[in-house]
Design a protein that fits this description.
The chain is an alpha/beta fold. It has 11 helices and 6 strands. It has 2 domains: 133 residues, Rossmann fold (3-Layer(aba) Sandwich), CATH 3.40.50.2300; 80 residues, Response regulator (Rossmann fold), CATH 3.40.50. It is globular and about 50 Å long.
Length: 233
């Protein structure tokens, strides 16, 4: 799970794999990220098949993934990458806002979803968040995914499947707190919180923190205002 990966530090730049079939887009992102001291471009890929191979070879901290690509699309690439590398952290960067792209990408394991009309500052911020294992959703996407998640499912258990402590941890995850921040607030160790998060994801059949956040919103563990008070759900 995402909790198991190391987080880049100031001495170790965030290594990013850029996946987009348009050369001019890739090069533009490369040029942008080259100006950021805390980020390093680890590699590039022009389609989903290359992305899967490059992700396995380079083990980047963050994969910046387009969705509409030849050979293999981004959603299938996300599925294959997360199946092979449980700790992979993937940030979707696309122009698509339709339900047929947004929700499948999140279900496949994407930890963030950003639109291509976002500002460079938004992109850098999202990369930093996803590198820490924190969810990052474009504001216009959050409510859309929430609406989709309101549809009943047979697989996801109700909140009472969790212990009171796990519900408390889930609510703090949904508010965007990191494991360190949660441990400080609950006066316990970071390792204990990490264990709680892993158990929550396992019990609820969820893949990562963004799915946990959206589940918490769906079930009323937190309100939409609490869960999406920042620009990134």
């Amino acid at each position: 799970m995402t909790e198991q990966r190391g987080v880049a530090t100031a001495k170790s730049p965030i290594r990013v794999l850029i996946v987009d079939d348009q050369t001019i887009v890739r090069k533009g992102i490369c040029a942008l990220l080259a100006q950021v001291a805390t980020i390093e471009v680890a590699g590039e890929a022009s389609n989903g098949e290359e992305a899967v191979a490059q992700s396995q070879a380079l083990d980047p901290d963050v994969t910046l993934m387009d969705l509409a690509m030849p050979v293999m699309d981004g959603i299938e690439a996300i599925r294959r990458i997360t199946a092979r590398q449980a700790g992979a952290r993937i940030l979707v960067l696309t122009s698509f806002t339709g339900d047929d792209k947004v929700f499948p990408a999140i279900k496949a394991g994407a930890l963030g979803y950003l639109l291509k009309d976002s500002t460079p500052t938004d992109l850098i911020w999202a990369i930093e968040q996803v590198s820490r294992g924190e969810p990052s959703l474009h504001p216009s996407i959050a409510a859309q995914v929430l609406q989709e998640l309101r549809r009943p499912t047979e697989k996801t258990p109700p909140p009472n499947a969790l212990t009171p402590r796990e519900v408390e941890v889930l609510s703090l995850v949904a508010k965007g707190l990191t494991n360190r921040e949660i441990s400080a607030q609950l006066t316990t160790t970071e390792a204990t919180i990490k264990s709680h998060v892993s158990t929550i994801l396992s019990k609820l059949h969820l893949s990562n923190r963004v799915q946990a956040t959206l589940y918490a919103l769906q079930e009323g563990v937190v309100s939409l205002e609490e869960g999406t008070s920042d620009s990134d759900a």
